[in-house]
Amino acid sequence: MKIIGIGNAIIDVLCRVNDEFLEQHQLIKGSMKIINQIELEKLLSITKIEKRVAGGSVANSMVGLSYLGTKVSFIGKISDDDLGKTYEKDLINQQVKFCYKKKKEVLPSGTCIILITPDNERTMCTFLGSSATISERDINEKIIKNSDMSILEGYLWDSNDSKLAFNKILKNSKKKVMSLSDKFCVVRHQKDFLDLVKNHLDIVFANEQEILALLGTEDLKKAINICKTLKKIIVITRSEKGSIAVLDDTVEEYEARKNLKIKDLTGAGDLFLAGFLNNYIKNKNLKECLNLGTEMASKIIQKVGSRLH
């Protein structure tokens, strides 16, 4: 496999709600909140489900890369339950090799309720379930070593077991890529993430809020100047303001596509990452990488959900 992704294996459950729904349930628009099993069951009982697909940030990126013709695999922990079986089958149908042998776990498979408001913003309520219990025992070193690149997500840093798995992958990977996942995730682990970016990673993906939180500034120009000193590829997505890639003194800016019929922002960052890396492994320059990332993100936000087909 060219690229292996490691992340939380979570079934995405897409629902449309209004802004009042978020207020009633004290949810911050655009954020990701961890919920327990009781909260999950309550939310599922009061929302109308539009779609269920195998999700999780890195898994979405793997599906995007597969769509572009890159050979990819994914490691994520599921339980041998109905949701877990649906998850595995869905990824295999998308030509993503699933490198985890499921068994009956104490916790059910992870679920993310994605609440889409009329402005197409998404607010996520995530029950991590068995996905958060991924540990170094679940990581086959040979699979990691046989891949050209490993992609990790910041959310893995939220549990001690998955943190150990994360570190095992870093030790065995040829090229290491990380998505910072979520502003609140960055705030929780700012010191550790900064160490990872400075000393262990080759490519980092972040949106504007995440990179500012990571670098402890509210000034994007200052953040870009800091990025220049890191000697890594730092990719910053800025929604309608486009995207930026920084490597040493090179700063490439790329405009967002105009006049799109936006339906749902779910998966925009994940598909951007897929497009960027697909061109990167083909030795394209930063501008060409940003171009395909932008194209993939533009396509996905004009559909509901995180799948292009």
Average pLDDT value? 94
Structural class determined from secondary elements:
alpha/beta
- The number of distinct β-strands equals 14
- Give a short account of the largest sheet: 9 strands, mixed
Cα shape: globular
Q: What's the helix count? A: 12
Poorly predicted regions are: none
Q: In angstroms, what separates the terminal alpha carbons?
A: 22 Å
Quick one: CATH class?
A: Alpha Beta
CATH topology: UDP-N-acetylmuramoyl-L-alanine:D-glutamate ligase
Helical percentage: 25-40%
CATH superfamily membership: Ribokinase
Strand content: 15-25%
State the order of secondary-structure elements, H for helix, E for strand.
Answer: EEHEHEHEHEEEHEHEHHEHHEEEHH
Q: Please, how many domains?
A: 1
Biggest sheet: strand arrangement: 6-5-1-9-10-11-12-13-14
What does this structure look like?
The structure is a single chain. This protein is an alpha/beta fold and 309 residues long. The chain has a single domain (3-300), classed as Ribokinase (UDP-N-acetylmuramoyl-L-alanine:D-glutamate ligase, 3-Layer(aba) Sandwich). 38% of the residues lie in helices and 23% in strands. It has helices at 19-24, 37-46, 57-67, 82-93, 141-145, 160-172, 183-188, 190-199, 208-215, 220-228, 268-280, 286-300, and strands at 3-6, 10-16, 32-34, 49-55, 72-75, 96-98, 110-116, 122-127, 149-153, 176-179, 203-207, 233-237, 243-247, 250-254. A 9-stranded mixed β-sheet has the order 6-5-1-9-10-11-12-13-14, with helices on both faces. Strands 3-8-7-2-4 form a 5-stranded mixed β-sheet. Helix 11 packs antiparallel against helix 12 (286-300). The mean pLDDT is 94.
